[in-house]
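Quick entry between incubations.
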Amino acid sequence: MKAIPYGRQSIDKDDINAVIETLQADYLTQGPKVKEFEEKFAAYVGSKYAVAVSNATAGLHISVAALGLNSGDRVITTPITFAASANCIRYCGGEVWFADIDPETYLLSIESTRKLIESKPKGFFKGIIPVDFAGLPVDTEAFRTLANEHDLWIIEDACHAPGGYFEDSQNEKQMCGNAKYANIGIFSFHPVKHIACGEGGMITTNDEKLYKKLLLLRTHGITKEDMSENHGGWYYEMQELGFNYRLTDIQSSLGITQLAKNTNGVIKRNKIAKRYKEAFEGKVKFQGLPQNSYNAHHLFVIEVDNRKDLYDFLRENGIFAQIHYIPVHTLPYYKEIGYKEADLKNSENYYSNCLSLPMYPTLTSEEQDFVISKVLEFIHG
Ligand SMILES: *Cc1c(COP(=O)(O)O)cnc(C)c1O
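Done. Structure below.
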């Protein structure tokens, strides 16, 4: 059997033809495909606005900048995420603070976040960046209540979760990243994620002022709208120090065809998760699923005692499981800011045991059975 990775993209004829068409059209970048992708993406998650960016890290950066962060301002995130969820705070000169995860869902714990906030004077924190880890939706409604009490903004890092949703207290379906309770949602189109553009990202919001600011920051701070003067047709103004964080039309045309397949991809991911759960129930711990949630399953995470041995054993069998993630506060760069190991117990215990098994729509039943049999073989010694 050929090697089985933990995740991989699926590109078909539609995707290839869409990219070829764009290559033969007038615009390779700043053309109609970007707008089309943004509109279709916003419609898919149910947000009013969407801003396509060169990658999710760039999206996180200008989102924090657009929400307004002064040097030294403090923002809370989870240690169990990709470093970019924290780095965006540093790009804007802010301080990163961590609260612990829930040991069953692996999501940023609302209780731990509340405890941290309430241990400090009012106004100490500016925002919260919770992550829909592995594709499991964060309860943004509960975070909104907390955020309102303390005048905080929320960026939902939904990079793992296009197509995931939860039902709120009114039994209304809330798609991940719809920006109903969070101010902003962030998505990634890196090939290990659901929608592959090579590189790419999307910012979603319902706030028109934020939307305009994000457009400005994406393109150097340059605009032709709301100008203080006008010298003629060529004239533009640079109103802020922005960036070049644009997505190309080539990438957007791939994003459009990939997005159209996402609902089915997530259904397939959930079928794979169901088979893992049936095989592991009572034998291997896996990520919990709150009753009102639909997991988009970027990952399927299990916990085992001798994780390194299982990781090595699977590799010997051509199964390339992965670890998500090394807790961000234990990375050398972040250790410097004063977090010690043992400060965030649930996150550290989780890291000692976690392993992400292969999870992607084109994983065959035969391949999955092989993975399951090797995990059980290891568990049973
Ligand atoms: C992948 C990922 C990012 C960064 O995405 P890029 O598009 O690679 O910049 C940020 N946050 C999380 C949770 C991710 O998984």
